[in-house]
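Deviations from the work plan: none for this task. Representative record:
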Amino acid sequence: MDLLTTSVATVESAGEPYTVVALSGEADVTNSGALHEVLEAELARQPRALIIDLGGLRFMDSSALHVILRANRTMDRQGGVLALASPREPVAKMLRLTAADQLIPVYPTVEDATAG
Amino acid sequence: MADCLALRPRATDGFRHIGFFYRSHGEYATAVAGFLRDGLVAGQPGFAAVPSARVSLIREALGADARQVEFADMTEMGRNPAWIIPRVLRFTGNHPGRRVRYVGEPIWTSRTDAELREATRHEALINLAFATENADILCPYDLAGLDPAVVADARCTHPLLLSGGRQQKNPGYAMPFLIPTSCRLPLPTPPHDATSHTYHTDLSEVRALVFNHATDAGLTVARANDLVLAVSEVAANTLRHTCSHGTLEIWHGQYEVVCEVHDDGIITDPLAGRRPPDPRDSGGHGLWLVHQVCDLVELRSDSTGTTVRMHMAVLHQAVAG
């Protein structure tokens, strides 16, 4: 079984489409390249809103964070919005300690992200 | 040209890092309160981070002026000495464009040997981290209680000394090295019964090993996860920056769980992971996280490789993130 699995879906909220990339397992330096490719493929479609659902992640390291920060810069450039949703406590703490949560909005659930 | 220079605002004297060796509470209160009060008179915000018992000494001596000074209990704020520089940078950052005064007492008698080494290193690194800051930093040392070797190191880490109410240049500063020798010696050997593990690319296995050992030794799940993050970040550096494997050793005693990672990598920046990273940076978060989540981190790096020893006390609560 892969350490990190990803799935992509589009959800609609109030008539607006949101791309949701759901991660589960453990995101670290050994699979940050694969994560980068998944996110790049979605960014190439120029979505207006991209939500990364972290709910299934047991662990995330700074390599995965850097991939997310790069995706955030690309979204900024493209005029879109990136959001993070449903991090478990160890991941949420890591986002706070790096102040990444000051740069990228973090929501308790995907539904909150689409409402926000 | 000369006129232009004359019109410039009076140059500030940049950064001053002053050691102060006290023998009595009276001497302490007078000197520290005087230092902070001189700053207040000059419009300079003050911040004192000292062990809580001495916070009250300073408050009493300052009287009503104490309300204008920020205080912190150094035994919490500086439990891990690597937390101090970011906290003080936050204080200076809260007062942009103003000269500030900071009293920091990171060394007290009940510190462990490992903590004393890191607190001494912190004192030396202040000279690098604050070189361009507009600040006076006063560091009191308890001459009566501290080991003479600790005091000797403090004489090496402060460019100025406060004595008899006057600041004087310290001829012993940075002699023979900016970082005192006691902080550069090899770490004590791990115990014989330490669990040893060699990793190549399977960091998930490393994390599971650390989590199980840490919870078995009595760490809460939250603090075990902190240690897992720290070890995983250091091990990730092995994969990022070296072409070979790394080794992990774990052991615990009555009071702490310790993880040590060794690899062939070399870390040359003495302030690596000790300054808050900009979240927009695409690097430099790994060692920052290691220092933030652990109770104490010791790092040795030379041409033979890098060793990072991470300590987690069994009794403390998780650090709020």
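The radius of gyration of chain B is 21 Å.
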